[in-house]
Specification:
This is Acetyl-CoA hydrolase/transferase C-terminal domain-containing protein. Keywords: Hydrolase. GO terms for molecular function: hydrolase activity. Residues 368-531 form the Acetyl-CoA hydrolase/transferase C-terminal domain. It is built from 25 helices and 21 strands. It is an alpha/beta fold. It folds into three domains: 20-225, 3-Layer(aba) Sandwich (Glutaconate Coenzyme A-transferase), CATH 3.40.1080; 241-552, Acetyl-CoA hydrolase/transferase C-terminal domain (Glutaconate Coenzyme A-transferase, 3-Layer(aba) Sandwich), CATH 3.40.1080; 579-648, no CATH class. The protein is globular, with a radius of gyration of 26 Å.
Amino acid sequence: MPPRGVFILPPQQAPRPATPEACVDLAIERVGKRIVLGLPLGLGKANHIANAFYARAKADPGIKLTIFTALTLERPAAPNALAARLLDPVSERLYGGYPDLDYARDRRRNALPGNVRVKEFFLPPGGLLNNASAQRDYVSANYTHAGRAILNAGVNVAAQMVAPGPQGRISLSCNPDLSLDLIPALHERRKAGAPAVVLGELNAALPFMGQRADIPEDWFDALYDAGEYTLFPIPREAVGLPAWSIGLHASTLVRDGGTLQTGIGALSDAVAAALKLRHLDNTAWRSAIGTLGSDMDLARQCGGLEPFEDGLYGCSEMLTLGLLDLFQSGLLGRRVSDDIARQEALLADPASLREDEGIALHGGFFAGPGELYDRLRSLSDTERARIDMTSVARVNDLYGHEELARLQRQHARFINTAMMVNGRGAAISDTLADGRVVSGVGGQYNFSAMAHELEGARSVILVRATRQTGGETRSNIVWTGGEVTVPRHLRDIVITEYGVADLRGRTDRDVAIALAKIADKRFQDAFLDEAKAAGKLEKDYTLPETARQNTPERLKEQLQPATASGTLVKFPFGSDLTDTEQALREALEWLAQRNTGWKARAKLIVSALTRAPEASRFDTALQRMGLANPSSFKERLEQKLVCLALERTGAPA
């Protein structure tokens, strides 16, 4: 690649402005001072160019800038001084080379200038619940409709991070999801006389992905060469016992030779890890699902109990580290063809597949921990050819390619997570009851609907049975709750750590009973009382005693053998944190859950002062936190709080 700032125009190569500010000059020259800037979801934002647009708008009130995007990534911020002791060194280690987005910083402070608006169709999960600007300018849209919403908003500038490739070629890499449709649409608008500019930001750290993501440079009006900078790493969550239980239950429902879609987070990591365990260590997997009491009849009917001989085909809007690991482990080994006749032939005779053909994994975008990016950069040519990063409309729906999609998506399992499930089986995944947006619809509705459209397909909603709110434990199986993401008429399979509820085609009565059976014991009676009050259950109905054992203590007992043997680990795909940092992270999360409101805080402090173990027991962790030798009462209290939390979360001494 030419050095930064060099302006060269060989055939098919886009101009390379010397600075991001020069990209802004080009855009203003062509579209004027009313700018609607489209930035990709998640990782693929052109951060330097975006910052240049935002700085220009802040300096010139005559510019009217609207940024339309989704999932703006921000480095984690410590909520308090104690958490900063852990987080600040980790943040510097992981994000030191990442160029922060200036508009995100100002928005978090509710300090956007009056001539700038930021519209998003998917928010960082839970990160902007109390941010007035983000809540006001949230746009509710299915992922497959987001491109239309952006175009209707009048987007006239698009800016995306791209990967450099052979002369005249670049890769949309992490975000072909909307760009494969949006950029050609802008080209068409320009032909029709409407001004539009398409800008790219080259980042040598971005993996070059082929297939549909590999495009000619002349799609772009200019490419700013930013050299190489850190790709935003999304921290991995620990997979605790409830998550492992959910993943193990879900892994029984996936059929060999089928299709797999998963989301992001600990529950999705647990599903991928459990599927890998089923494939590579079937004996240990069977032992774990046996102790959990998984429904073997449903497993045989819907999924299977054997390793994956034919393999799975991955078709997921998000390429996660878990899915990539399954691909590299050989589990995602069923390849499909994008030619209808050839796909029909492969279904009739799978053995006819040639070594050099077929796609094992279609994805719309990727984002994750640093290891995901490292693995993608180091793919062999053969592996890279079997991954097709493509349009999200191609992955998340059937329209426009229905015949081919039906042939490819055999026995599809669309596995997604929810915050809560109500008593009619509707999923509550993105918005609270008061209207505040937690995240967004994304592709969840589309996948749930597609499961009812495709023969042999099932939608699987994963939800933890309980959550901690304000220091209290509350149920996620609720009679009523927030705004619905997936409506009751699309109800299908729901899984908590306590089992599987098969809701498809069931009456409201049977749905209520099935959900009560997988709820936490502490909340079953209240849930049943509400069902009875609504007339959905007869007044004298009682749950069978076998369904009355749903407690965290029993779950821990059931999974103890698998935990003790090392089969179930907290980070099945590794961690960016050291073992000590992992233990401290869990301890601080435990403290945060119990530090809401003055009563809870007072109770916590009293417990720390009277019940905290000796500091010498956790010397390594205290050294890492800078609390081994406290010099004030505040530090002595912090030391005791950390020791108490480490003990309660089971950290090793």
